[in-house]
Amino acid sequence: MSVSTSSAPATGRAASSILDLIGRTPLVRLPRFERETPGVELYAKAEWQNPGGSVKDRAAVRMISDGEKAGRLRPGLTIVDATSGNTGIAYAMVGAARGYKVKLFLPENASPERKLILRAFGAELVFTSPLEGTDGAIREVRRLVAEDPNRYFYPDQYSNDGNWRAHFDGTGPEIIEQTAGRITHFVAGLGTSGTFVGTGRALRQYDASIKLISFQPDSPFHGLEGLKHMATAMVPAIYDPALADENLGVGTEEAHRLVRRLARDEGLLVGISAGAALAATLNVARRLQSGVVVTVFPDGAEKYLSEAFWTADES
Ligand code: PMP
Questions:
Q1: Domains of the chain, CATH where assigned
Q2: pLDDT tens, residue by residue, 85-103
Q3: 273 C-beta closer than 6 A to ligand 1
Q4: Can you name the residues that pair with 295 across neighbouring β-strands?
């Protein structure tokens, strides 16, 4: 047996910390769904492969390192923010790795799995009224920081440019590279809007003919955790409503149905907003003769496994 000394070890070099493993996620093709969209290629960015399990790792590490560089985040300060879950998990992970305390405000009805993960990373949790959703959590965290501004670093993901810039510098260029510049349409959901705005701006700058399609829940009362119904929510300061060529509404049941199909037909165990992303992607792709449509699957299914929709009857 001959041993080659010229090739690099298969596993590459060691990462210098868990934070080095954020980003550069795979782009996965959806061949079973492409049967329904002849001539159109469908791809999803596998964001659940980030070490904290979601797309929000990208924004969190960027906002925290921007805070350190600007001198606003110093040793001894506590990182605080309002989060429906994934950003909180990302802050908790990054905070642990960088040596900061993390205190999070979240609606009491956030999924039990999320609360357990946050506690496991050592974050302190403050529960706010489920009736007021994420907006209620935002109001509470602002009150705390206003009372004692010198103790806290408040990244405020809804108005922090680092949120969308993480995608402008990361997600967008990665998609261009992974499609060899062939992407024609980009589809993403709106939560803080960081993913859509940052990736969209990078794609637009690369090729102004790429179509940008955002989507959001089709009603104020929805089960699309992580997404916002903009007409009735506090609109994030970083949101740029002029960016999208089209803005679609997606229903919760449709998202649930497609999450089940992604698991059973493609072997992809993803979260509910990924099902919603696929609904919007299929809506776009069905109207095309040809194209390369790319979306983002923000997280995996682990945090939603106790929900009833997995076993709901297929209709
Ligand atoms: N899906 C899930 C599951 C999320 O947690 C989030 C973040 N709120 C989003 C989608 C939307 O991402 P963004 O905040 O970048 O708009």
A1: 18-50+162-311 (3.40.50.1100), 56-153 (3.40.50.1100)
A2: 899 999 999 999 999 999 9
A3: yes
A4: 44, 187
